[in-house]
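Why predict the complex rather than its parts? Because the way molecules touch one another can change local conformation, and only a joint prediction can capture that. The input here totals 1070 residues.
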Amino acid sequence: MTESRRYRPKLAVWKFSSCDGCQLSLLSCEDDLLAINDAVEIAYFLEATRARSDGPYDLSLVEGSITTPEEERRIRDVRDQSRFLVTIGACATAGGIQALRNFGDSEEYKRAVYAHPEYIETLQRSTPISHAVPVDFELRGCPVNKHQILELINATLNGRKSNIPTHSECMECKRRGTVCVMVARGMPCLGPVTQAGCGGLCPATHRGCYGCFGPCVDPNTAALANQFAGLGLSPRQVRHAFHGFNAWAEPFRTEGDAHD
Amino acid sequence: MSAQVVSRDGFAALLERLIADGYRVVGPTVADAAVIYDDITGLQDLPMGWTDEQEAGRYRLRRNDSPALFAFTVGPNGAKHRLFPARQPVWRAVRDGSGFTVDEPTEDDKRMAFVGVRSCDLAAMHIQDRVFDGRAFSGEHSGDRGYVARRENALIITVTCGTASGTCFCASMETGPRPFGGYDLNLTEILDGGRHDFVIEVGSERGAALLASIQSREANAKDLAAIADIAAKTTAAMGRRVEIRGLKEILADNPDLLHWKVIAGRCLGCGNCTMVCPTCFCSTIEDTTDLDGDHAERWRLWDSCFNPDHSYIHGGAIRRETHARYRQWLTHKFSTWHDQFGVSGCVGCGRCITWCPVGIDITEEIRAIRAIVQENADD
Amino acid sequence: MTERTIAVGALARVEGEGAIDVRVRDGTVHEVKLHIYEPPRFFEALLRGRSFGEAPDITARICGICPIAYMMSASQAMEDAFGVRVTGPLRDLRRLIYCGEWIESHALHVYMLHAPDFLGFQDAFEIGRTQPEVLKAGLKLKKIGNRIIEVVGGGRAVHPLNLKIGGFHRIPRKREIQTLIEPLQWAIEAARDTVGLVACFDFPDAERDYTFVALRHPDEYAITEGRLVSNRGLDIPIAAFSDHFAEKHVPHSNALHGVMVDGGGEYHVGPLARYSLNSDKLPPLAREAACEAGLGAECRNPFRSIIVRAVEILAACEEALRLARAYEEPDQACIDYAPQAGEGHGCTEAPRGICYHHYRLDDDGLIISANIVPPTSQNQRTIESDLRLVIERNLDMNDADLTWLCEQTVRNYDPCISCATHFLDLRMDRS
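Output of the joint prediction:
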């Protein structure tokens, strides 16, 4: 640690509606966890510690989507206490898989799952954090890539721009030397409209990308949907391809809605 | 230079010789449903019994009954991936008191031998030489030292294409299917009845020395005629062509065609065409630090003109819309590349057609643009 | 009348969000509530109409800590519906990746979530300050668990992507699997040390006569398959799950609790149940370590679950090493099957206990209904009973210490509230 940086910025990790996987990705930075703890003060991170120190926080990482009135209130508190607020993962950034309920009748969903739906106080929709409060940066992924979390913390500490690309997943596949599964195997793949960041995992595992990282910059979803139809997908299958883990992200939502 | 004939076993011995001489041998092999270029350890790694079918947006590996070792055409990658790696370190810096020291990464000094390079890729290599060695700008080797070193050390063994795919158009780009020179050795695979030989043309002294180390006989007129015969048959089988006459001007003069937007309606903007193109050379820079800020690294990564960020300068990207990016790419390949490097930027390998996820066909689009421009001129 | 309230507003070092509410009146425990305020995410509802093949990837998102449990139970249920079974090397690969999840999840719990309680620390970082080598070894163990998942599962430990109905998308290469051997050899030693380390902790006396429920398999310590058995004589195929287990709405809680139909009582799933029912099936080193740590054939003290988890880490490392060494690439990444209408059951041992899935499918293989019972929901009632016992025995403790002890009592179960909540009946009552 250099002498020049004695101040340890305060890091807080917050959870809303989610599976915990993105927070866990941070805990999965096993080699760097102790270094992170040296470099920042972990001021609030319930999954890891009982200790809590009060805000304001220099960097807040927010996992999960907003699905209850209580969460709507709580995210405003978090925003008020946070200098830099970064959402981590598809739930916080796009509403997550639970946003699939946004396409149905959420009252009916409650009745389907719960014996006493009248007790369930939830919002009609699962929405991203940015719908409730201003967000400084969004990290994509279901889950986030732990290297991107590290890169973000690292860049923030060192006062530089983080290396988080917004281009298509195809770039990662090609840099990695993965053979395109759509061209060589006829598998539908969301890679051409999905933001890079995972490392190109699915095509390297011989399956099409299913869009964990949400839409890339300028996605031409209609052209890809047309190609999917050419590969033999039914309209329902095309809809479900777009209505996955980032279904409520606008380009995917609209494209899925166009195929009934 | 001369030509020799070696048997299949002789060719196997040649590969063994390369490995014994300390070369990293890079050649075609089957992996992940395609013929890719990767490290090979001998004849057994070559794609015997495999061929491919290629159409716009479609590649399929197929079994065939032939004992041929090169009965396929270009796959998704080639020599570019090794000579111009997708990700390479530029420098590393370590904090040192109040300053820092900078190290340049050391190059892997193992020489590479590329086996089975197609003439289109050989042409692409010569184009990238102009890009990276800096002569196009300054007249001397002022360019990418890493590239120049890798390239100068590389041994190139090409192969005359004995088959053409549906997306090949090297003949119309005048780069193949028979290598024009600039190789160390050129193979032509001869299968005739029970015969399985290679006619090997020598293109350099290094190639001659290598060939001298294995058993061979001098090629006769019939052998040499077979090379021309195979090349002619492959040319005739080529699935596509591009009319290059006047194309440079047509593209330069028509940036405002509505057709660019028509193409953009289908274009995913994903960048696959540029990634598979053997001449595309764009890169971006990524700076990384460790948590303490005591170590910093600069990396160079392949980039694409299809990424909006690629043309980002203060205030925003220059080419904000897909049609502008597609136009930039196509116009660069067939028009402004001539201005910049004195050659076409397209070698006719057809990869951008095959590996476009939605099958946009560069030859069709050029034909359409030519027709529209012609029609406008006639009006 | 004196009233004493112990409230833990937000439980730390658990997965998901929950709280404890305890009311003590005149020296007796009046009310114990384990609040689950994690919002519901309606998984069963949103699975309807989706294709059978999507169930593993979608249900994985119920829990980022044990996605493999969900992927595997969902896959098994679909295979059951189609009348096929995954056997041979593909089954071995599934067991291998599941071992990875056990190692990762248990190492996380033992070192980062649970051990600090026994050492009087707020978190694992304090262990890092006093005994950095211990924490580093724990993190390295966890990393090896993650590494197994990454190698078999397609490159990432949270929500791996190589698992599917019938097997895998891509066959892991032998050389890739072999990279696990050396780290696992280290891990076995580290896991033995872990057992020794946690066996020396002080454990409150909290033995209870639990009804333990776990999978049991004739040939192995059950993880991916088996029959459901209990220490009260239950022995049923997983398809009979709903005949014997139900979810009940109790007045003092907003959550549905898993109960046994026969007798309607609470039951206990997870490491303690597995160990107590299957300790005879542990691989040799794990059995030996358990013996050295003073565990008998059964373990009924939930605070000692940290020892059992450590033993299970060792068992998973042993199994993983055996499977990695014996690995030969199968011919096919996935068995053949024909989707058809029907219903299927799946049940596997998640790190926290049995994870049961049931689906009904239509002719197109679309999901008509889904029912998922995760381990933490099944343990909720037991956790509340444990809390009641612990409080009754420690009423003389001051509030701060008793609160911490209550938290620790909950953490004994490594509860995954994110998992539990997708089906919990929940009321946001904050009065």
